[in-house]
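The protein record passed on for reference:
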Amino acid sequence: QVQLVESGGGMVQAGGSLRLSCAPSGRTFSFYGMGWFRQAPGKEREFVAAISWSGASARYADSVKGRFTISRDNAENTVALQMNSLKPEDTAVYYCAARSLSSSRYSSEIPSGYPYWGQGTQVTVSS
C-alpha cells in the first residue's frame, strides 16, 4: 500500500512564497522518482517539476523554471516544492506523485508516468 500525503498549500498574494511537502509511505523502496503536477479549474492536469529518487536530477516546466525548486530530503523521506514569486496563474490544486520502475518507460512530464498520487492541496494566489 502506497500513500502520498501533501501539505503546505494555502492562499498567498502575488509575489509571495509557499512551500509544499509530500510524505510518502508504504512501498517507497519501489519508487523511481517523484513529481509535482497541478490542475486549475477547467484545465488538464499539467506537469510542474520532477526529481529522481536519489535527488540527483530534476526538471521543471518552462512556466515555473527559475521560480520553483523541487527537492528531496533523504533523511525525512519527503519531497518538497518551494514556490517563489507566485503569480495568479499558479492557482491550482497541486498533486504529489510517485514513479515506479514499470512506469519509468513513460516521460516524467506526463501523468501516465506516475502510478501513485496524493489527494492534492489547494494553492491560491491573489493579485
The chain is about 0% helix and 50% strand.
